[in-house]
Amino acid sequence: MQKSQTTFKDDYSQENRMESEDNGRVCSISRGEGERKDGVYNLINKIVSHDNLNLAYKRVKANKGSAGIDEMEVEELYGHLVQNKKSIISQIKDGSYEPQPVKRVEIDKEDGSKRKLGIPTATDRFVQQAIHQVIEKVVDPTFSDSSFGFRPKRSAHDAMRKAKEYYEKGYRTVVDIDMKQYFDTVNHDKLMYHVEEHIKDPIVLRLIRKFLRSGVSIDGKVYSTEVGCPQGGNLSPILSIIYLDQLDKELEKRGHRFIRYADDCNIYVKSRKAGYRVMESITNFLENSLKLVVNRQKSEVGSPLKRKFLGFCLHVTKDGVGFRPHNKSKKKLEKKLRQLTKRNRYGNIRLIIKEINEVTTGWINYYGISYMKNYIRSLNQWLRRRIRQIIWKRWKKVKTRYKSLMKLKIPKQKAWEWANTRKGHWHIACSFILHRAIKNEILERVGLKDLNQLLEKAHSNY
Questions:
Q1: Which residue of 111, 281, 290, 370 shows the fewest CB atoms closer than 10 Å?
Q2: What does the radius of gyration of the chain's CA atoms come to, in whole angstroms?
Q3: What are the CA-CA distances from residue 89 to residues 19, 35, 462 (Å)?
């Protein structure tokens, strides 16, 4: 049985205060008054402290994000806080702060369904972040060592390394449990009961409940929120961990090997028979004790070599157990790149390449721990061909093609011959003549990053 984690109390990085003198005035306030030694009763004084509020502002500003129902952009938050700092701090201290309803936004999921997001106002995000920073230090040391999502100094890569460890120890069947619309189904009373186990400050508890019950605005009409923890708020991650910590404790009590990342939970067992038994018992626990809904269509007992977890699956080679991006992750990347490199795209080619670099760099930084040299090599070639296709399409007329090929030092006869070709754009993009004209070095000079080099750099960081 795994033990609860107890080593994270002092493991929080300290960021500098805002550099300018003006920024230092955003949220000045007198320091802690009469805090109890156990640090859980007078948390409100820590929340409204000068350093905590300034750090909250910096993080909200860095995260950017869309405006809430008041249409205030994050760039406008500083001026608003300077003008209203006394009233905002006073309202937080006495618990009278009233959050505004979140703006409902729906985004498409891979399976065709919609993910519901709640966008708080910039001020509400600021207050939530200030609360988050303080209560995280109180509750994080009590969480399971097998919980990885939304926690300091833990990542998806750490979770995958733990999965590899279980597989190497013989736990080669995974119980993959998917919770249906988790953030929309959390029971408020049960959540607050578990929050109160950690936090004793009544003002902080009152503020948290207000954020849970603040309502949601859909097409200008406000609806009450009786259940759920709006996905998109700064408090939602820590509250979701507190709620699902009950699942972690139950799994630890039963002696299971498991990994939980937010609402994604994988339990590792040694046989399919044990897997089906665990699936049934844990599903009952989630639905009866935590009042959550398990998505039986997506939950499955299978092999970690095939089941997708955090975008990865395990991969066995002669050198041992490693990782590879799941096929669905690859297809999602290719779909995104295909959209960015449509041959009829308008706009400056350098800006298009900049967008491509943002996608490929982020993807390789995340999946860089994987075995995928052959995939990246072929993706690199395909992507360059897509860009050459855009360029060829833009040259359009015979005259333009001829002049462009001549500028790129193609012999006159060959330039005229290829400028008059009737072959399709995709075919020409792979031709010797266009490879000779638009060399890889030219593409790199206009900004395109070599995916092979990005992968080598990512490997060197692990």
A1: 111
A2: 27
A3: 21, 18, 43
- What is the structure's pLDDT at 345? 87
Q: By the 8 A CB rule, do 252 and 2 touch?
A: yes
Half-sphere exposure of 202 (CA within 13 A, CB side): 2
Percentage of residues in the chain having pLDDT higher than 90: 73
Nearest 5°: the CA angle 425, 427, 432 is: 110
* Cα 311 from Cα 332, distance rounded (Å): 10
Tell me: the pLDDT tens digits for 337-395? 999 999 888 889 999 999 999 999 999 999 999 999 999 999 999 999 999 999 999 99
Q: How many CB atoms lie within 10 A of CB 168?
A: 13
- Bridge partners of residue 259, in order along the sequence: 266
**Quick one: pLDDT band at residue 65, thresholds 50, 70, 90?**
confident
pTM of the model as a whole:
0.83
* Position 195 confidence tier, pLDDT thresholds 50, 70, 90: very high
Burial class (CB in 10 A: 0-12, 13-18, 19+), 437: buried
pLDDT tens-digit readout, 324-347: 999 999 999 999 999 999 988 888
Tens digit of each residue's pLDDT (9 = 90 or more) over 206-244: 999 999 999 888 888 888 888 888 788 899 999 999 999
In angstroms, the CA 168 to CA 177 distance is: 21
Q: Under a CB-based contact definition with an 8 Å cutoff, are residues 232 and 117 in contact?
A: yes
Taking the C-alpha atoms of residue 41 and residue 26, their distance in angstroms, rounded to an integer, is 26
Q: Cα-Cα-Cα-Cα dihedral of 368, 170, 310, 255, to 10°?
A: -140
- pLDDT over 70 (residue 39): no
